[in-house]
């Protein structure tokens, strides 16, 4: 069940991998990250937090080995759209071809919109309380991490 259908996955951080507004991992996500990393799935983080903060959080959680790139906001990079492009570039994926086989997983309408705008599969997650109907543009809606 933990088999990943994509070769590349870009994850939102707050409300997706972490409980909303908290540095605590969502139950079940670490097993997914470990399994997909082991399977060779390229993974990155794309967050609206600053890149420096995001990298510190990922490092403190001991997650650095799972992500080839952690992209956040900073000079010249504002908004989830731009952060997603940065995350893909950090994996060596240049759009539009870089979107092939890639998914973006997030809990906000902006995550879904960015994924769709750039041609990635959009996965909306509701486990932090986002109603599914505001993630209506998503290709998939997940109510819990895959297990
Ligand atoms: Mg989020």
From TrEMBL:
Tree of life domain: Bacteria
One Pfam family from the record: Hydrolase
Native source organism of the sequence: Actinomycetospora termitidis
InterPro entries: HAD-like_hydrolase_sf, HAD-like_sf, HAD_sf
Protein name (Swiss-Prot/TrEMBL): HAD hydrolase-like protein
């Amino acid at each position: 069940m933990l088999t990943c259908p994509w070769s590349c996955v870009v994850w939102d951080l707050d409300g997706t991998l972490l409980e909303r507004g908290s540095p605590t991992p969502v139950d079940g996500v670490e097993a997914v990250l470990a399994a997909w990393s082991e399977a060779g799935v390229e993974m990155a983080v794309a967050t609206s937090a600053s890149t420096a903060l995001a990298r510190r959080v990922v490092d403190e959680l001991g997650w650095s080995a799972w992500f080839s790139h952690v992209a956040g906001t900073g000079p010249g990079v504002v908004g989830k759209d731009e952060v997603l492009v940065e995350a893909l570039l950090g994996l060596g994926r240049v759009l539009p071809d870089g979107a092939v086989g890639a998914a973006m997983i997030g809990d906000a309408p902006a995550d879904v919109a960015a994924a769709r705008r750039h041609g990635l599969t959009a996965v909306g997650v509701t486990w932090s309380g986002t109603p599914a109907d505001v993630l209506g543009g998503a290709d998939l809606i997940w109510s819990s991490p895959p297990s």
